[in-house]
Amino acid sequence: MTIGKFFNAFHQRDSIALKKVCSENLVLHSISESEKESNFSIQKASDFYKSIATIPLSMKFEEKILSFKVQIDGAMAHVWTPYEFYVNDKLSHSGVNSFQLYKENEVWKVVYILDTRRK
To answer: Which of helix, strand or coil describes residue 34?
Structure first.
């Protein structure tokens, strides 16, 4: 499954493998939430790949996916994945990932990621 490959590459800090499961026009948005406010941010795909490839090897991180909900209509799919993100075995934040995928030549590619982040 494309999302499984995405997270395997993510946890291995493998930006080349990440690019293989994502569209070259990948769009990334995040909503950071606190008790007082929420902030919407945009990340360039190139900055995302660079940030993954440059995570120090001394840092242990894991995004634990709590469940998957998949919806498919033809060549379009939506995958909803609640998660908890741990850094050095300590909970950093939690939220939900919303992945939009497009099926191109029988291969699913991630075209859009929107996530929420709560402390």
So the answer is: coil
Three-state SS at 30: strand
Residue spans of alpha helices (H) in the chain: 2-11, 15-21, 45-53
pTM of the model: 0.92
DSSP string, 63-79: EEE---EEEEETTEEEE
Distances (CA, A) of 4 to 9, 56, 114: 9, 22, 17
Per-domain residue ranges for the chain?
2-118
**Unique residue bearing structure tokens 């190139």:** 46
Instruction: Using CA atoms of 9, 13, 15, 18 in order, give the dihedral in degrees to the nearest 10.
Output: 20
Q: Which pLDDT band, with edges at 50, 70 and 90, does 83 fall under?
A: very high
> Cα(40)–Cα(83) distance, rounded to whole angstroms?
19
CATH number of 2-118: 3.10.450.50
How many CB atoms neighbour CB 79 within 10 A?
A: 22
